[in-house]
Amino acid sequence: MTSTSGTTPHLIEVDGLSASYGRVAALKPVDLRVEEGEFVTILGPNGAGKTTLLRAISRLIACNGQVKFKGQDISKLNTHQLAKLGIIMVQEGRGLFGEMSVYENLLLGAYGVGNQRDEVERRFTQVFTLFPRLRERSSQAASSMSGGEQQMLAVGRALMAGPKLLMLDEPSLGLAPKVAAGILDTLGELNRNGLGILLVEQKAPLALKLARRVYVLSSGSVRAELPAQEIKSHHDLAKFYFH
Ligand SMILES: Nc1ncnc2c1ncn2[C@@H]1O[C@H](COP(=O)(O)OP(=O)(O)OP(=O)(O)O)[C@@H](O)[C@H]1O
Ligand SMILES: [Mg+2]
């Protein structure tokens, strides 16, 4: 779809999105965009509203404001309808079904595909190619996988849904540095293959390596939006964090 001006619309465009928990305004009106095939990272201190922002975009919480996907207003859609469009979030804490096998968890990710066996198989092949460990452990209960393996499974399950925009909330949380780097490398590979990614990540050096643009969120507001290469050090970031 193209906009009336003939230019390619943003993959996702967030305009004045806000959300509250009771009287706590966790997200002040926020503007944000991700272009087709772009890798964007959100940085910010604890309690900044990063998780709230991703939850608001995916309508896991009530919010105000406008969100457009490829130029189409999706503000009125629910989480399930957004998933059908390809807007998929990997939540912090992974949200896996622990008693179910790796295979079953992956299959659940593809529920939107319906009866198209070939498409489901194609997606399994893609996920198992990216994460061979998941193939090896496909009959193992999700809860008995290591932290890193569970994160692979969470990303794998999201890929089974056929995302156009993949949003991830701190996928490296609690993982050994090498394992975290492996997960993020995979995200980089997916992005090089054209997938739009919106990543919340506290490990700035890792995230900045991959991202093209960065938003710094603090106290529920965007404090800065800048190309990743402009952020040279934690020291530079600090001035946004403590604005
Ligand atoms: N369910 C909730 N009920 C009440 N307040 C909440 C709830 N969830 C989050 N908050 C508050 O909203 C604000 C933003 O929280 P959020 O989880 O979005 O921050 P975050 O940037 O993801 O932080 P972290 O880096 O620690 O994950 C915080 O002040 C938090 O205490
Ligand atoms: Mg969070």
Keywords:
single chain, alpha/beta, Rossmann fold, 6-stranded mixed β-sheet, 4-stranded antiparallel β-sheet, 10 strands, 36% helix, globular, binds adenosine-5'-triphosphate, binds magnesium ion
Summarize this, please?
The protein has nine helices and ten strands. The model has no long low-confidence stretch (mean pLDDT 91). The strands form two sheets. Strands 6-7-8-3-9-10 form a six-stranded mixed sheet, sandwiched between helices. Strands 2-1-4-5 form a four-stranded antiparallel sheet, covered by helices on one side.
Count of individual domains: 2
Taken in chain order, the helices and strands follow as EEEHEEHEHHHHEHEHEEH
> Under CATH, the topology of the largest domain is which?
Rossmann fold
Which class do the helix and strand fractions yield?
alpha/beta
Total DSSP E strands: 10
Helical amount: 25-40%
Count every helix, treating DSSP H or I runs of 4 or more residues as helices. Answer: 9
Apparent shape: globular
Q: What is the name of the CATH class of the largest domain?
A: Alpha Beta
CATH architecture of the largest domain: 3-Layer(aba) Sandwich
What does this structure look like?
The radius of gyration is 18 Å and the shape is globular. The strands form 2 sheets. A 6-stranded mixed β-sheet has the order 6-7-8-3-9-10, sandwiched between helices. The chain is built from 9 helices and 10 strands. The longest helix is centred in the last third of the chain and has 16 residues, at 177-192. The protein has helices at 50-57, 79-85, 102-109, 117-130, 132-136, 147-160, 177-192, 204-210, 234-241; strands spanning 12-21, 24-34, 39-43, 64-69, 72-73, 87-90, 165-169, 196-200, 213-218, 221-227. It folds into 2 domains: 1-86 and 163-175 and 193-243, 3-Layer(aba) Sandwich (Rossmann fold); 96-162, no CATH class. The protein is of the alpha/beta class and 243 residues long.
